[in-house]
Write a structure and sequence with these properties.
With about 100 residues, the protein is mainly alpha-helical. The chain is built from 6 helices and no strands.
């Protein structure tokens, strides 16, 4: 698979960089919640699809849409779980509580 010129120009793969940042934060004693599952280059893990589609009858696009908007403030954003990692536990939980208050 050929990476886009933008990704190729970054040097280190962005999700490897996230792994490094997460490890560094943990070494510094920061409580990191790892929401990362899989990789955006790969299909959604089967257990997530099964829980949403089979268990709840919801397509992932609709299940994750409100979460994506709550976390990023946009309907189109970087991968949801990685966005949560970058924001950190406190900011992510604050945004998710605000979403819950509107439901």
């Amino acid at each position: 698979m050929e990476l886009s010129p933008v990704l190729a120009g970054l040097g280190q793969y962005p999700f490897a960089r996230l792994d490094d940042w997460r490890a560094d934060a943990r070494r510094r004693g920061i409580d990191v919640i790892d929401f990362g599952v899989g990789d955006p280059r790969e299909p959604t893990p089967a257990f997530i699809r099964e829980a949403l589609v089979d268990g709840m009858g919801i397509k992932p696009k609709f299940a994750f849409g409100p979460l994506r908007t709550a976390v990023s403030g946009r309907r189109v954003s970087p991968p949801l779980f990685e966005s949560m990692e970058i924001l950190g536990k406190s900011a992510t939980l604050t945004r998710l509580r605000a979403l819950r208050a509107t439901l």
